[in-house]
Specification:
Elements (H helix, E strand, L loop, with lengths): L4 E13 L2 E8 L3 E8 L14 E5 L14 E4 L4 H5 L1 H17 L7 H16 L6 H12 L17 E3 L5 E2 L11 E3 H9 L15 H17 L9 H10 L1
Antiparallel strand pairs: 1-2, 1-4, 2-3, 4-5, 6-7, 6-8
Amino acid sequence: MDDSVIKGLVIGAIPYNESSRIVKLFTKDKGMIPLWVRTGKKIKKAIWHPLSAVELSGYKRKKKDGLATFKEASRVLPANNILKDARRSAVAFFIAEVVDKSISDEAPLPEVFNLLWDTINLLESSDSVANLHIFFVGNLVNELGLMPEIWGNEREITSGSLNLSTGEWSEVEMNLSKEAYFLKSELAFLMMKIPGMKFDDMQSLGLDKSSRKELLLGMVMFIQLNHAGLREIKSYDVLETIFSA
């Protein structure tokens, strides 16, 4: 591919001035890059929503740590349902925020890029996206190489916890909290099974609301503790509200 043409996934954006913003773009070969984007009246703003897949022509970046620029941008994956459906939009915002607050450097992560690309396709085309955020985060743990090894005989273990800070197992069952980074073994085993599941299999998780929340936030905490440090995921409450309606 021409070096001046690049594909990327929109992760987030911050205002730069009244007529521009800095967009975080996640790319397969260059990792996360800051992109300078004009936002004037004649510019199409809808293309820069979270998890939008775009192709840039005339891509340039003079310095390794400088802002990238481009001449033209076009969408490369459809987002009709994502933009029209509040549930799909909420999942997109959540996944983008998890990536934004969990992957801080610009090192290429092609496996994570491919996972995001496949997730966007599922988000647009699947009949139900109720568990897609859980499916994504479980697979993200795996793609980042964080998945712990199995502890003893799963069938014989009725208690215990996974220390999310060290990846080590404990025989003591502890609940997840902001002060105690532990995930109950039952939920940790489920996390380990997600990468081997198809998304359709996720529809029958059989978890109550409390366990779903603990599993999801535990997996996010596991990633952050081993990458960028703990940061609040603000879009989670919106996600919960929409799916509870």
